[in-house]
Amino acid sequence: MKKETSRRLEAEDAFAKELYRNRASLNQQAQQVLAAGTRQITIRLSNSEIALARQQAEAKGLKYQTYIKMLLHEALAARTA
After folding, report:
1. Could you say which of 16, 19, 31, 64 would form a disulfide bridge with 57 (CB–CB 3.0 to 4.6 Å)?
2. How far is CA 12 from CA 18, 26, 55, 60, in A?
3. 62, exposed or middle or buried, with CB in 10 Å at 0-12, 13-18, 19+?
4. pTM score, two decimals?
5. What is the C-alpha separation between 79 and 61, in angstroms, rounded?
């Protein structure tokens, strides 16, 4: 279980590093997502997922909720392309 979690965290870290190299670009993407209109929803995430999102978001200079929204937006956009 720990090995699987470790692999998943490493994969997520690699994903984040590749997609978010440029902080200015990242902040610009966040503003575009937020400017497109929003609607409040509720989802449940595990404490470990939230902690990981907070850690990654902090490293990028973002709030964790904005970071999660960006990840979701990019994942959905990638699946429609």
Report:
1. 64
2. 10, 17, 12, 14
3. buried
4. 0.54
5. 27
